[in-house]
Design brief:
Elements: E1 21-29, E2 34-38, E3 47-53, E4 57-61, E5 68-70, E6 75-78, E7 86-89, E8 94-102, E9 124-127, H1 140-143, H2 150-160, E10 164-166, E11 169-170, E12 173-177, E13 184-190, E14 193-196, E15 201-204, E16 211-218, H3 219-231, H4 239-250, E17 254-259, E18 263-267, E19 273-282, E20 288-297, E21 308-316
Parallel strand pairs: 13-21
Antiparallel strand pairs: 1-8, 2-7, 3-6, 3-8, 4-5, 4-7, 9-12, 10-11, 12-19, 13-18, 14-15, 16-17, 16-19, 19-20, 20-21
Length: 320
């Protein structure tokens, strides 16, 4: 659960805190580094601090030896700060957005303003489910030695076991380090061809004349799907059930398209929508609609821009 500190009344007479001034800014947190994000004030003030990030991070109040972890959606809010200084650290490189409201004039800086000198991090893209992630391991309530349900095991593996097999065969990618709201340019290609007949005619596995769909998926949608598989694995008893769940995911994504041969495309990730899927329609070699597995190569020329995805496998749904 995200840690939230609700605004509490301060001052005499039980009155609430009222803020007349606001300032916001951005910090780039480098993995493993701790920096001051909100300075202390010389006098007691009524101050509210709100911090938003894409991934979990930790904060530490100046003068404290212990850090406070912020989980899940990377959100922290303290409505009665009082003017104490705040430090932050993160296990991953990411952008931290900060808003400060105060009852007196704010005479200190909060990071960098996005329109001025905000540092733009090198773009980092990683598998949504990494190869060493615990999510690929069966939950204890499914894999209990005394009460193992092999149908549940099969269902769980059928869904999650296919999302990341190797770094070159990933069905869902996510923006890991990026600037929210910035437009990134990517390219997508594929070399999925087969040679048919005695003449060896080259035929594409992806149906000619169709589009490859690039899907930008909300974070909440993917985690809802994870919950469905974990809680209702006894209901998701066939490949068709799993296919329907994947369709449910794709129907909640924003979509842009490129021709079946591939090409360049633009994406603008946000703090709530940053997971990538690729959908296509197969030719007679693999008829149907379905998701693709891809590899990703970062942009070595300009690491602040997008790189290249290559479709390495096409997986049509059984009931499309």
């Amino acid at each position: 659960m995200p840690i939230r500190f609700e605004m509490r009344p301060t001052g005499g007479g039980g009155g609430g805190a009222y803020y007349r001034h606001i300032k916001s800014g951005y910090f780039q947190l480098t993995a493993g580094e701790e920096i001051e994000i909100v300075p202390a004030t010389p006098l007691l003030v009524r101050r509210e601090i709100t911090i938003q990030a894409d991934n979990p991070f930790s904060i530490r109040w100046v003068g404290s030896d212990l850090s406070l972890p912020v989980f899940e959606n990377g959100f922290y809010s303290d409505g009665s700060d009082g003017g104490i200084g705040v430090l932050a650290s993160s296990p991953t490189t990411q952008i931290l957005s900060i808003w400060v409201r105060q009852d007196t004039e704010i005479d200190y800086n909060i990071g960098s303003e996005i329109e001025d000198d905000m540092p733009i991090p090198d773009l980092s893209i990683r598998p949504f489910i990494s190869l060493d992630s615990n999510i690929n391991k069966l939950p204890s309530f499914i894999s209990s030695d005394s009460q193992v349900n092999y149908d549940d095991v099969d269902t769980y593996n059928r869904f999650w076991g296919t999302w990341t097999t190797t770094e070159g065969a990933v069905r869902a990618w996510q923006f890991d380090a990026f600037l929210p709201g910035k437009q990134y340019v990517f390219n997508i290609t594929h070399n999925l061809y087969a040679y048919i007949g005695n003449d060896g005619i080259s035929t594409s596995v992806i149906k000619e004349g169709t589009n490859i769909e690039i899907l930008l998926c909300p974070r909440e949608t993917m985690w809802m799907a994870i919950s469905q598989v974990a809680l209702f694995s006894n209901v998701l008893s066939s490949h068709i059930d799993i296919d329907n769940l994947e369709k449910w995911i794709t129907n909640r994504c924003s979509v842009i398209t490129v021709p079946d041969t591939g090409g360049a495309f633009n994406l603008t990730p946000t703090l709530s929508r940053y997971i990538l899927l690729f959908k296509a329609e197969g030719s007679f070699l693999a008829p149907g609609l379905g998701l693709c597995r891809c590899s990703y190569t970062p942009n070595s020329t300009d690491p602040k821009q997008g790189g290249e995805f290559e479709i390495t496998q096409f997986l049509p749904w059984e009931d499309w």
